[in-house]
Amino acid sequence: MSKTIKRILLLILAVIIIAVVGFIGLYYTRIRTIGSIEQLTDYEDGYNLYSMDIKYDYSLDDIIDYGITDDQTMIDAILKEALPLIPAKINVPDYGCTSFTLTDTDGDVHMGRNYDFRKDTSAMTVYCSPKDGYKSVAFAALDNVSANVPDASTAKKLATLTAPFICLDGINEKGVSISVLTLDSEPVRQNTGKPVITTTLAIRLVLDKAATTEEAIELLRGYDMFSSSGRDYHFYITDASGDGRVVEYDPESENRELIATPSEAVTNFFIGYIDNVLPNQKNGIYGHGRERYDAVMKVFDEEKGNYTEETVWNAMKAAAQDPNPDAITSNTQWSVSYNNTERTADIAIRRNWEDITHFEIK
Prior knowledge:
The relative contact order is 0.16. It is built from eight helices and 19 strands. A nine-stranded mixed beta sheet has the order 1-2-5-6-7-8-11-12-13. A six-stranded antiparallel beta sheet has the order 14-3-4-17-18-19, covered by helices on one side. A hairpin with a 6-residue loop joins β11 and β12 (about 245-250). By secondary structure, it is an alpha+beta fold.
C-alpha cells in the first residue's frame, strides 16, 4: 500500500473518530436526560404521567435567533436545539383550559389550571435548571411529539428531548407560574421589528427569566408574538405576591397591542372584553368558555373567607370538562394546583381526583 493511500485512510479514520467523539459529546447529557425519564402512573388507557430532568444545556436565545417566520421554522428551530443531527417530528398543538389565582387563609398564593384538549395525551413533568435562568417544573403534552409512551422506542425517547420548549404551564423557583389558553380570534402575528417568539417559547422564556408577573410582562413586550398552529392564545401569569394577570393581544387593535389585565380567573375568552361574552356559546372573536369562568367564580363566592388548598381543587373540578368530540377545548387532560408560595405543583390526570402526584422545585 502506498504512503499516499495510507495517509488518506488515516485522514478518513481521523475524521470518523472526531465525528464520533463530537456526536457522543453532543449527546452525552441528552442521553442522561432520556435516562431520567420515569413513569409515575399506570392507567389502563395507556395515557400516563411521566417525569424527566433536563440535563443538557439549551439556549432559548439560539432558538429565537433562528428566525421564526411560521410553524415549520419554529419546529426546525426547536429540533435544531433539542435534537441536533437527528430527524424528528413535532405536531403543533391547540390548547383549551381554565386558570385562576387565589390566596388562602394561611397567606399562600395558588394558581389552579385545567388543561383541556379533545384528544387524550400523556403528560411529561419537565424539570429545568438552566445555567443562566431559574429552576422550574412544568408540564408538556406528549401527544404533541407523538410520544405518549416514551419507552416504546428510541425515536419516542429522543422526541421527549423537545419537552422544555413545548410546555403548556409551569412554575419557577421565584414563584412565577404561567399557563396558555386558546382563543377564537385570528392568530396574532406582530411585525414591529422585534425578535419573534412563539406561544410555548414564551412560556419557557417566562419560567427561565421572570421573577415576578411584572417582569414576565416586560419580557414579553420585548418580542413580536407569533401564535402557532393557526390559533390565537393568551397567557395567565401569577407570582408569589398574588399578582394574577391575563396577557392578551388586543383583537380590536390593528397592531394587536399587548394588554395585561388583572383577573382572578380566565378561560377561553378575552378577559379585556368580558362584557361581550355570554356563557354556553361562541362569541365571535371574543371567545367562549364564560360558563367555566362563572363556575370558578361561584366557588370563590361560596368559600370566600375560608380559602384553602381544597378551594383550588373545588374550582378546578367545577370547571373541568368531560370528553366531547365536537369541542376542541373539552376533555380535561390534567389539573394542576400550583403553590406559588411553596413553589410546588400537585397534578391529577384526566379527572382522577383521588390520584394526585406532588412535585416541588429541587
